[in-house]
Design brief:
Layout: H1 2-44, H2 51-61, H3 67-82, H4 89-98, H5 101-110, H6 116-123, H7 134-146, H8 153-166, H9 170-177, H10 192-196, H11 199-209, H12 214-235, H13 240-257, H14 263-271, H15 277-291, H16 296-306, H17 317-329, H18 333-343, H19 351-363, H20 369-378, H21 383-393, H22 402-412, H23 434-444, H24 451-458, H25 464-476, H26 480-490, H27 500-506, H28 512-522, H29 526-537, H30 557-569, H31 587-605, H32 608-617, H33 619-627, H34 633-639, H35 643-662
Length: about 675
């Protein structure tokens, strides 16, 4: 009997162990399904006939071991709840427990007895680039109304005005904000609600700026600023500078929009109370931008006055580049030297353009006696020293200014790019974080079309290594433009050092077989074709420009039709006879025709840079510009009045040099 009892006990234990192991397996096997359920729910959610299926899939995803999947599923269920889907009490609790972002903030506002400050911090806290708060906002307002918590007239107006500005409905916003008027007249002092929530100053400022009521807004903001300064003598307002900055900055923007001559003065006043470096740079940018519309000497005086207030020199590249073109077109080498003398120690990479032009004018003997004396006085008499400055100024940038670095590298016989050989492959074997697993799930479950908003929301919390992995996944999915944008953002992080793979992701070799085939046929270097496609379309084969240019090489239909006819007559394929006819979204057709057209231009201009400018700006136009200039081609480029054409030449040449360096033949 004892023997049989022992066997029974042993058998019972064995069964329990098997059950325990099975339960463990069941739980671990469930997680992948729970994860898959979320992505499947996204895919079928738009189908109204599968509404209940998507709800069930999101509910199952709430059991995922990945917190990011649970949070995203909670957000989807909260959205469905807002739309009228009634969750079970248990699911409702799970939604509130797992929610993040705007939905978590919304549930927090409603969790207990409504707190006035918490409510308004939430409803007036929406910012661009932080996800869409529309549904959480309306959910909170609806629930508060159900509870009998009604906003006052002005409070409601402020909330609605803030949200209207968030959605760029400025006329509607101004109508809401007029609730703060008394008998159609604005109060002489800023309403206390604006003091408590200064973001409303920005909102009202934008409403005035983008509506015909700008003059009204300018007078009001200046009056509020004046009275605020007087009130401070008694009240000692803690955030006085921030309030005054907002009033003055938006008064200046309104004045600028309405071409009022007080704009420069107002931006200068705002500068002196700007709370941080970003706002300070914004004020200086506006001052210099407006000054550039005056005489050259007026601009140079203001540049010299305000350069001590710069924080990020590259913030001003666009203004300095535009001014450089103005001076170069006038052959005003003297003022180019004066500007370079002011900016040479700044962080603005466009100083490379100034240095290059001065060096080349010295080499070409274009300076007058007076200008040569001035160059010596500034210490600019040695072209190689200037070229070295230009080379150094573009060391760590990825922009059209790399064009100058490529020119300087050739003259100085120094390397164009200096990157470590390792490609960050070592990090590929590491265990992925939950956040990275969540984002990569969009690719493995064919839901990549939904990933972009999640990347935007999560980007700041991810490391460059993780973002590089996401960028690689985007590239492998054929989403080259999105991949390049992501890389360009994380390599710009302060203190980050690029690795080779970053550059390979920024400069991909999509459609390499087609590019190399037509490069071999025409004799055009492959890197120039890659540079052209990258600059024109970022490798998006179906993109259409506002002017009507189509596809990878951005061909205008009429030009493509003419070139396709030439290809056919030369013995090539008759693309018009294909099943879908001439289809410029087809990479095979587009790349062939685009390369053929570029080769057609090269045969006529006998210069790559001029041919690229003609590709962008039109053959006859570039021919006319060139015939009116005796300058060398590199200096002629700097005089072209059309920024798009001027910059296009730089971008393609710079990109081609990067491709040449990254992918040596």
């Amino acid at each position: 009997m004892i023997k049989f009892r022992l066997l029974d006990i042993y058998a019972s234990r064995k069964i329990l162990i098997i059950i325990f192991l099975f339960s463990l397996c069941g739980n671990s096997c469930a997680n992948p399904q729970n994860q898959s359920d979320f992505y499947q729910g996204l895919l079928i959610k738009p189908d109204s006939e599968k509404h209940q299926d998507s709800v069930k899939l999101f509910e199952t995803a709430l059991n995922s071991s990945n917190a990011y999947i649970r949070q995203a599923a909670a957000a989807e269920l909260a959205s469905l709840e807002f739309s009228g889907t009634e969750p079970s009490p248990g699911t409702a609790m799970r939604i509130r427990r797992e929610a993040s972002g705007w939905w978590a903030a919304a549930f927090d506002v409603l969790a207990a007895e409504p707190n006035r400050k918490k409510v308004f911090d939430f409803l007036l806290g929406f910012r661009h680039g932080t996800g869409d708060p529309s549904e959480p906002r309306l959910f909170v307002m609806r629930e508060l109304e159900r509870q009998g918590n009604v906003f006052g007239e002005r409070e409601s107006a402020a909330i609605e005005g803030h949200f209207a500005v968030f959605n760029s409905r400025h006329n509607e916003a101004l109508s809401f904000f007029r609730a703060f008027q008394e008998n159609g007249i604005w109060p002489e002092k800023m309403p206390s609600f604006f003091l408590e929530y200064p973001v409303l100053i920005n909102d009202l400022g934008r409403a005035f700026q983008y509506t015909p009521s700008g003059t009204e807004g300018l007078s009001l903001f200046l009056q509020w600023d004046k009275n605020l300064a007087l009130d401070n003598l008694q009240l000692k307002i803690d955030n006085l500078d921030d309030l005054r900055y907002r009033l003055l900055f938006f008064a200046a923007r309104i004045a600028n929009r309405n071409r009022h001559n007080s704009a420069i003065s107002l931006f200068e006043q705002a500068l002196y109370v700007a709370p941080n470096s970003e706002q300070s740079d914004a004020c200086v940018w506006y001052v210099l931008n407006l000054s550039s519309n005056e005489t050259a000497d007026f601009f140079i005086q203001h540049l010299e006055k305000f350069i001590p207030y710069w924080h990020n020199g590259n913030y001003f590249n666009d203004i300095l580049e535009r001014f450089l073109q103005t001076l170069a077109s006038r052959h005003d080498w003297k003022r180019i030297m004066s500007v370079f003398n002011i900016i040479k120690d700044s962080g603005a990479s466009i100083k490379a353009g100034y240095a290059w032009i001065i060096a080349r004018t010295i080499e070409e003997g274009l300076l007058s006696q007076e200008e040569r004396i001035l160059a010596e006085g500034f210490g600019f008499s040695q072209p190689l020293a200037l070229i070295q400055i230009a080379y150094n100024a573009t060391e760590n940038i990825v922009s059209s200014h790399l064009y100058y670095r490529s020119l300087c590298a050739a003259v100085l016989e120094q390397p164009f790019l200096e990157l470590p050989e390792e490609t960050a492959d070592a990090g590929r074997g590491k265990t992925a974080s939950a956040a990275l697993d969540f984002l990569l799930g969009f690719f493995t479950h064919n839901a990549v079309g939904f990933v972009h908003s999640f990347i935007d929301q999560m980007e700041r919390g991810l490391s460059p290594d993780e973002l590089r992995t996401v960028a690689r996944a985007l590239e492998q999915a054929g989403m080259y433009a999105q991949s390049m944008r992501l890389v360009s953002r994380y390599i710009g992080r302060e203190g980050y050092t690029r690795v080779r793979e970053d550059m390979e992701l920024l400069f991909p070799r999509a459609y390499a077989e087609l590019v190399e085939k037509h490069a071999a046929e025409t004799g055009i270097r492959p890197e120039i074709i890659f540079g052209l496609i990258r600059t024109e379309s970022a490798f998006q084969n179906a993109v259409v420009s506002s002017a009507g240019a189509v596809g990878l090489t951005q061909l205008m239909p009429d030009t493509a039709l003419e070139m396709a006819g030439r290809i056919r007559r030369a013995g090539g394929p008759d693309y018009a006879a294909w099943e879908n006819g001439l289809d410029l979204s087809n990479p095979v057709q587009n790349i062939h025709i685009g390369v053929y057209y570029l080769n057609y231009l090269i045969a006529r201009f006998e210069d790559n840079l001029l041919s690229l400018m003609a590709y962008n700006g039109g053959m006859n136009r570039v021919r006319r510009w060139r015939s009116a200039s005796s300058l060398p081609v590199d200096l002629f480029l700097e005089t072209v009045a059309f920024y798009e054409t001027r910059d296009y030449g730089r971008r393609v040449i710079a990109a081609a040099e990067v491709y040449k360096e990254l992918y040596p033949q």
